[in-house]
Specification:
The complex is a heterodimer of chains A (106) and B (119). In chain A, 0% of the residues lie in helices and 46% in strands. Chain A has 106 residues and is an all-beta fold. The N and C termini of chain A lie far apart (36 Å). In chain B, a hairpin with a 4-residue loop joins strand 9 and strand 10. Chain B starts with a strand and ends with a strand. Classes of the chains: A mainly beta (106), B mainly beta (119). Chains A and B meet through strand 3, strand 7 and strand 8 of A and strand 5, strand 9 and strand 10 of B.
């Protein structure tokens, strides 16, 4: 079965750039979306189709996807960006989520 | 405004049955699929399956096929997730999410339903 692999945690200093990776076989051939989940809240879509931002998502969120790796980049990370982040892609008719990455801004 | 409103928290005993719901507001319910996603305590998101409310066709993750049933009533813009015999391991938060087939993403999520199964 298809798997998406994320690092369990990423740390960043406020104001710096954080990168969260998501790896999978030929992932660059698939559309990847990213979700932010703050503690106790529902997930929120922050990137779709690899690099597109929904309305209302700050432009410090960006995405890329090539080869076997998709990357979510937060430029000028803020303390409010501390959350769990999940990548997601489709394999045939099945949605696959990565295991999630906890972003800590300290 | 698009909203998915889920039914309230449930406490059940092992072996009991349960159906939770997800009602869509602010959009054409039959134009978007609804997915169900499980989040066990302290763990990540797991996609369980989805339904096309226009014709009630379904797809399930192999991990959940046969363990749950997803259904919908388009006349009341509501999707359901159902168990016939709950286990303690079903304790989790369950989210419904709208699947945008053009953008290939889950663009709106419900608030989650906590299901606790304990004797």
């Amino acid at each position: 079965s298809y798997e998406l692999t994320q690092p369990p945690s990423v740390s960043v200093s406020p104001g710096q750039t954080a990168s969260i990776t998501c790896s999978g076989d030929k992932l660059g051939d698939k559309y990847v979306s990213w979700y932010q989940q703050r503690p106790g809240q529902s997930p929120v879509l922050v990137i779709y189709q690899g690099n597109k931002r929904p309305s209302g998502i700050p432009d410090r969120f960006s995405g890329s996807n090539s080869g076997n790796t998709a990357t979510l980049t937060l430029s000028g990370t803020q303390v409010m960006d501390e959350a769990d982040y999940y990548c997601q892609a489709w394999d045939s008719s099945t949605a696959i989520f990565g295991g999630g990455t906890k972003l800590t801004a300290l | 405004e698009v909203q998915l409103v889920q039914s309230g928290a449930e406490v059940k005993k092992p072996g009991e049955s349960l159906r939770i719901s997800c009602k869509g507001f602010g959009y054409s319910f039959t134009s978007y699929w609804i997915s169900w996603v499980r989040q066990m305590p302290g763990k990540g998101l797991e996609w369980m399956g989805r339904i096309d409310p226009s014709d009630s066709s379904t797809n399930y993750s192999p991990s959940f096929q046969g363990h749950v049933t997803i259904s919908a009533d388009k006349s009341i813009s509501t999707a359901y997730l159902q168990w016939t015999s709950l286990k303690a391991s079903d304790t989790a938060i369950y989210y419904c999410a709208r699947h945008n087939r053009v953008r290939l993403c889950h663009d709106y999520w419900g608030q989650g339903t906590l299901v606790t199964v304990s004797s």
